[in-house]
Amino acid sequence: MRRRFTAIGLGLALLVGGSALFPRKVFAQDSSSEDGKRKVRTRVLPEYPPLAKQMNVAGKVKIETTIAADGHVLSTKVVGGSPLLVNAALEALKKWRFEPAAKDTVEIIEFEFSGQGP
Fold this sequence. Notes:
Largest sheet: 4 strands, mixed
Strand content: 25-35%
Distance between the termini: 47 Å
Strand order of the largest sheet: 1-6-3-4
Radius of gyration: 17 Å
CATH topology: TolA/TonB C-terminal domain
Helix content: 25-40%
Number of helices: 3
Order of helices and strands: HEEHEEHEE
CATH class: Alpha Beta
């Protein structure tokens, strides 16, 4: 029982402390970038999936994105969001291009889908 409480306490400490390690989010619809963020050169908005639209599914999709030094998307990892919306967000994000930088960077990109489209 004591180990269980220790594990829960450790998990909470990592969760709270780990949030400082993740970069701030970028809204897919926001054209300006925050300080320290890579500027987006080419932004492609996701197509609202017909099934999600029909089912009136709305919400946010968060994707951890590794951006190469030359500005293209190297890899993506879904952090959260409806499975009905994730693929549309991933397909759009793979087409994004960022300003070049000295090295690869990792950022959290957030897409917001409403009932009328992205």
